[in-house]
Each structure stands twice: as structure tokens, then as C-alpha cells.
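Take a record.
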Amino acid sequence: MTSSPTPTDQEEVYGVTTLELFFDLVFVFTLIRLTDVLIGEFSPLGLFQVVLMFGVLWWMYGGYAWLTNMTAPTATAHRLLILAGMGGFFMVALGTPTAFTGDGGLVWGLGYLLLVLAHVALYARGNPNILRVLPANLLAAGLIIAAGLLDGGPVVYVLWTLALVVPIVQPYIVPAGGLFSIRAEHIVERHGLLVMITLGESIISVGTGAAHAHLDAGLVVAALLGLALAAAIWWTYFTGDDERAEHSLAAADDHRRTQMTMFGYFYAHIPLIIGVLVAAAGMKKAVEHAWEGLKPGTALAIAGGVALYLAGDVLFRRIVRIGPSRIRLGAAAASLAAVPLGLWLAAAQIAALVAVLAGAVLLEKRRAPAPAGSDDLGQSSGD
């Protein structure tokens, strides 16, 4: 993410446009493909592949989200460049299943190159400072293309790791320059919609898993438990947190708002989104075998995914100072403790996770909302 001109007070306040939502749907389709990779390679290696690909994609998605936060994509040229970026994401999605073991790596890298070029063309129209960070983004694309030309092996993972690290460290070596002025209402709505779409992907995973099993009362109960788990995650994120986050961001000055957005919506949302994806991958397998014991990897994916989501949510809430976090830390630990239940009976584990999340929300309802606007990014007012 890079800087953009500071909007003036006279500029129109706008929400997320339909084109941005369309863009996010394509992005989440790419995330669905990542989930497919994890399901196909349900192992630490598969998880490492997903983390590498997600990290690279998330960096560029954040760049587009911050860009449209500055300027609504209403001009024809802007819309065409956003559509070109969507094409890049779609190419990435097509290449994802074989990104580390086949021709998919080359398609992935070329799609990412298209994302980079469309992004810099959009930014350069209003802020030429983007050209200072273009070499790092081009290098990342080149590293992935190079990895795609290889026939697997450890070097591929080294190149992918460098592609993830280079754009992240670049701003600390060559600052982009310029100032941010984040529109609080837009950034909150944009990421809330992304979380909602990601939760929708978890519903698709439950339905897909159910489609491969015999339809009976047990399957219906299992599918409803899967839906309840997705709903419980939704409840933890959307029960007023979005409104409180918007108020907290709006009350901060430009510098602090930028910090809160970077650390709260970019970094803290990484474990949050990955957690939902990992849990969805586990749920797809669990629904098919809801009344049996799960394999350790599947049980850990479901419980660990929920715990990772909660850890990201705790970090997010602490950074933007929107409420207590200790209860959710306890819920994350309790979620991990549900792994043995999954080894005994999948449905019991899912039900326990629903109970943990619902219990956390009910306990928080008993506490007064925490005040916003402290100067310490790393401390929650509710603790």
C-alpha cells in the first residue's frame, strides 16, 4: 500500500461502489481456490503454500482497497483499470491449484504482473509517488514468474518467500512519500463486506461437503451446525464492532487513522481471514463425516481456524480500541481445546465451537463498551 493525495474536506463522502464489490467477489473466488489447495494438500506444506499465496495477494488487495478509498472508481479509465485488475486476480485463481507444482505458477505470476501494472496505472494518475515502490512490486511478480518456470523443488518456495517479503520491507527502505487521509466509513465498509463474502465461502464449503454425503437427518443437522458456526463468527464481527470502529477511526487525526487502518485492517485481518478459510476447509471435510471421528488435521483445521480468526479479531479490536479482548482470547484457547472432541465426533466439535463463540458474545454483552480514542495502539481499553 502506498500513499495518495490527501482528499479535501469538500470532496464527496461515498460508500463502497458496486464495482468494488464486484472486484471483491473475484478476489474471494481466488481465496476459494486457496481453500481448494488446502483441502487437496491437507498438510503443513499445503498450509505453507496457502500462506505464501495469500500473503502476496493480500498485499495487492490492500493496495487496491486503499486506492479506491481515496478516489471512487467512477471515471471510465478508472473502471477499465479496475476491471483489468480483476482479470489479474482471475488469472491468479486459475493458476492457484498448480502454482507450486506445474504450469499454474507461470499463469499466477503473469496474473500478478497484470495486477501490479493496473494498480500503478491507477495510482500514477493522481500520485506519481507510486513509481518509487513499483520496482519492488515488479520484482515480486518476476520472482513468481521465475518460480513458475521451474519444475517444483525447494527453490520454488524460496522464490515465493522472497516475493512475499520484498513488497513488505520495501516501504521501510524506500518510503513512498506523500500523506494518507483515510475515509473511515469507506475502509470499514469495504473490509466488512470482504469478511462477509469470505463467510459466504464457508457456507459454500458446508454445502459442497453436504452434496457428497447421503441426505438424511444426520446430514441436515450437520449442515445446520456448519451454518450456525458461520453465523456465530458473523455475530462476533458485526455486532456493533463495525460502527464502533468507524467512530474510532473518524475521531483520530490523519496520522493515527492511517496507523490504525494499516495495523487494524491490513495486518490484523490477515489471521482473521486466513482463520475463516482454514476453518472452511475443515468444515467441507467434516460435514461429510459429521457423525464420525475426524482425522487430526481436519479437527485442528476447524478449531485452529476459529482460534486464528479470534486472535486476529482480538488484535483488530485492540488496535482500533473498540472493546474488550480478554474474553475473546479465552474463547480462542477454548476453541483449540475442542480438537479432542473432533477426534471423537465431528458434530460435537462443531457444536462446541458454536457454544464457545456464542458464550463469548453473551459475556461481552454484560460489559460496558470500552471508550475509544486512546493514544496507545497496542492496548485495549476493555482490558
